[in-house]
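User: Can you recover a sequence for this backbone? Please restate the input before giving your answer.

Assistant: Of course. Working from this structure:
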């Protein structure tokens, strides 16, 4: 039995989890091979591999929202634990520890989460108006 390839852009068997994983890796959610970003956060409008228009999928405030939510839940328990367990540690030491950690996690996770948001938007066909 001859199997014909699916037309470009049509991958009916791709699940939302597969697309999410591709987006988290900053790859095109449709093919998983093309780059999703052409810079730090600038979306490559058309995938160079499969031709999908990834620029039509909004991520707007969702990516920063989920990034702040995740980083806050990662950093806050340690900051609270430090403040409770070692109350003599100065504010400058706490700032010296948690400010770079928070900044690093935020800047590191933001492109990944933005890719995931775009991937989920592409799966559910949420397009920019
Ligand atoms: Zn692609």
């Amino acid at each position: 039995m001859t199997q014909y390839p699916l037309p470009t852009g049509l991958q009916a068997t791709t699940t939302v989890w597969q697309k999410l994983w591709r987006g988290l890796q900053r790859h095109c959610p449709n093919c998983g091979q093309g780059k999703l970003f052409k810079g730090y956060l600038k979306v490559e409008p058309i995938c160079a591999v499969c031709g999908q228009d990834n620029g039509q999928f909004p991520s707007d405030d969702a990516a920063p929202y989920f990034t702040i939510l995740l980083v806050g839940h990662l950093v806050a328990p340690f900051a609270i634990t430090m403040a409770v367990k070692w109350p003599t540690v100065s504010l400058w030491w706490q700032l010296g520890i948690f400010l770079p950690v928070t900044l690093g996690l935020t800047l590191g996770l933001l492109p990944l989460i933005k890719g995931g948001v775009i991937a989920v938007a592409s799966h559910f066909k949420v397009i920019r108006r």
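That completes the design. The pocket of zinc ion is lined by residues 28, 30-31, 34, 47, 49-50, 52 (CB under 6 Å).
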